[in-house]
Amino acid sequence: MVRSIFTMLTLETPITAIPRYGKLFAKRLLKLKITTVRDLLLYFPFRYDDLSNVVPIAEAKVDAPVTIRGTITAIANRRSFRRRMFVTEALLRDESGTMRVVWFNQAFLTRVLMPHTEVWLSGKVVQDGYGLHLASPVYEKVSGEAGPGSAGEALHTGRIVPIYSVTPPITQKQLRVLMKLALPSTPLFTDDLPAVITKQHHLISLSRAIQMIHFPENSKALDRAIRRMAFAEFFRLHCHILSMRAAVLKEQAPAIRFFEKETKAFVQSLPFQLTQDQRKAAWEIIGDIQKTTPARRLLNGDVGSGKTVVAAIVALNIVLSGKRVLFMVPTAILAEQHAQTLATLFEGTGVTVALHTAAHKLLKKQLLIAPIIIGTHALLHTKNILQNTGLVIVDEQHRFGVAQRATLIQESSGLVPHLLTMTATPIPRTLAQTIFGDFDISFLRMMPKGRKHVITRLVPADKRQAAYEFIRKEIAQGRQVFVVCPLIDPSDTLGVRAATDVYEHLRKEIFSEYAVGILHGRVKADVREKTMRAFAENTINILVATSVVEVGIDIANATIMMIEGAERFGLAQLHQLRGRVGRGSDQAYCFLFTDTDGAMAGERLKAVVRLQDGFALAETDLQLRGPGEVFGVAQSGYIDFRFARWNDLALIKETREAAIRFCTTLGVVVTTPSVVQRA
Ligand code: ADP
Ligand code: MG
Description:
Elements: H1 3-7, H2 22-30, H3 37-41, E1 47-50, E2 65-80, E3 85-94, E4 97-104, H4 109-112, E5 118-128, E6 131-141, E7 160-163, H5 172-182, H6 195-200, H7 206-214, H8 219-250, H9 260-269, H10 276-289, E8 296-301, H11 307-320, E9 324-329, H12 332-345, E10 354-356, H13 364-369, E11 372-376, E12 389-394, H14 402-411, E13 418-422, H15 429-435, E14 440-444, E15 455-459, H16 464-476, E16 480-484, H17 499-510, E17 516-519, H18 525-536, E18 542-545, E19 558-563, H19 571-578, E20 589-593, H20 599-610, H21 614-624, H22 649-665
Parallel strand pairs: 4-6, 8-13, 8-14, 9-11, 9-12, 10-11, 12-13, 15-20, 16-18, 16-19, 17-18, 19-20
Antiparallel strand pairs: 1-7, 2-3, 2-5, 3-4, 5-6
The structure holds adenosine-5'-diphosphate and magnesium ion.
Adenosine-5'-diphosphate binds at residues 272-275, 278, 301, 303-309, 448-449, 554, 583.
């Protein structure tokens, strides 16, 4: 009778319409941004407690977490004066025997779990002077809160229990009850996978997957559900990327002539010899831009592998062809530095480089004619900027998401520019093929000759002073220090070292004889620039910063990178930060300060100490970390997956193949780009 009401819930039905509980909880759920049945059903548990070990009392063993189904035969409160709390003691009986149950400071339980109540209790079996008892178990009445249809089925005990991220006043139990009531509506979701794919890959339906994710029948069903969701996430990404590839293939780009003589002269003018990889990459990209198909190429190389000069060689040919180059970087600081670097590289070639940032604005007219413009991603918002643009270069690519790539086509009238993107950190091959599935890829694996390893050390709390003394000696010899902190301001809860704190501490107490500067996202642009400049000119010895210095900044005299709260950074970020030092000829050091010693954090930090090769580190990261955290992938919310894990390489491969087959049957032209690798 009541059932019919539930089947009438649509996904758009407001929570308030859920019988009995909806009105009561709707307001509390607002905080979690849940207003409709759809929102509710898509609010997934962030973990599970496995309380599915249901045993008869006679078989409950000491120290084991168990769930027992039984009847309360007696229950009473007493005060424990010694421990200053209420103790509730009960007796639980099932067919096999009787066991004591003990709770602390939950006196209300005598009103909830009256004698004769049939309950599920989940907790740990503990031995005391009187024998065994069940300690502070989670309780659930056998035919209680979940309402109609759930008699005998436990929601909070005796099963794999979903744990949601909830904040008071809503409780886990309340959310579960409400979820259970909404669960019959899952068939209303339109399945997000084509039926043929579901069938071919033996996947369960979206509806069933959602049900199993909230209330898994068993761990196998849960695994299947999660895998199915992850499958869909990867599959859709692949399809999206393949369709972008197809869209690009339909467009026309300006064919750029290869200026062989000028290119050779330029390469010869460089103060160093190109590495084999650099030569090869430059050659590949020059091959791309001679075609009328818009190039989409990823230059995948480690910090310091010399991507900039490769980009410069390509840019030179574009400019000589009378086309323009937009060079986009993530921050204004980096734009300034790149402008400087490129201006130096192009000295004597007649190619000019223009800088366009919030602080250094080009005139509108200049913006539309300057042959090379360096700026931040804001450049793309300038009207008509792509006019006569032959090449867009995006440095530190992961901040330039899938969505932005499409704008290059949308914003171009007529010819679409070629696109060269460069990673900030190397991306493992399999992942690069996925995220940049619509790109051709060139790898820079070799480092330029003579590059020194940055000596990397973990510094636990008791070695901090010694590290300061070492640093002091280095500064005395004229070297400079970066200090990077995870946060700008002190945060009361986390105990994380904040830039402002560290700055004051170093300036006043540790290195009072030296000039200390600070740089973070809230420092005004002009002050920031001044500080940067002072650091570049060595009038500041120590620069405290948040990770704004993460990318690109090149200061040859800085030999020490000191990272506070190192465990709070991703491996990729740490590696990138480390790449900020060791640019000159002096030995460089990276000190990873850490206050916690979590095993996982330790494992990861040790990898940074051990591995200097970014590609190797990236592979390790892939094995050590979970979703969305992998090297070079999701550092800035690049792709937000709920279930898919970037280290599930087998699934990535399977879904990619499925997507290629599927898109081909739809008539989408899919030509898999080449992944060029050094032999
Ligand atoms: P990244 O790949 O991190 O962007 P850069 O392009 O900034 O690296 O290059 C790092 C440094 O190495 C720069 O100072 C650059 O001049 C230098 N460099 C680049 N290629 C070579 C090379 N083949 N030999 C020696 N030094 C090089
Ligand atoms: Mg770079």
